[in-house]
């Protein structure tokens, strides 16, 4: 007897209440991102950082000294793992099933996030391409600035519902909408 297992996203029920088109301020949830933790071995940090910067179809998110998240919305886990494994001096672990990736964008994104993070997100301070681990909605998250008014947030799967609910509440006065990215 074959089992038919369907992937059900942890935020499926949270997004049910959001219908209609996206407003200028919008929270997108990525259904199936590929996420790996990457650690550089002692003394190899510089070489690993350079090699990660050259990886194709992978966005690199800084987490701390010698630690990154490798994120892809286009490449499969096998492709990402192969690229990362080819880098000398790294240890890696796939985190795709344990993390949730959300992107929040719009003209009011900094005002919304200012209610959730204790970091200065002014463009002169938190530059495009910059990322860091921080508290977001009382949960340890990785926040990355991916565009002029766009940020990505990666949180543990077990806290994704709480973070989603708090972000949508903080964005209510700015007419924040939400949907799955592929919806």
TrEMBL record:
Superkingdom classification of source: Bacteria
Entries under Pfam families matching the protein: GCV_T
Sequence ranges assigned to domain GCVT N-terminal in this UniProt record: 56-178
Protein name, UniProt field: Sarcosine oxidase subunit gamma
Naturally occurring in which organism (per UniProt): Rhizobium deserti
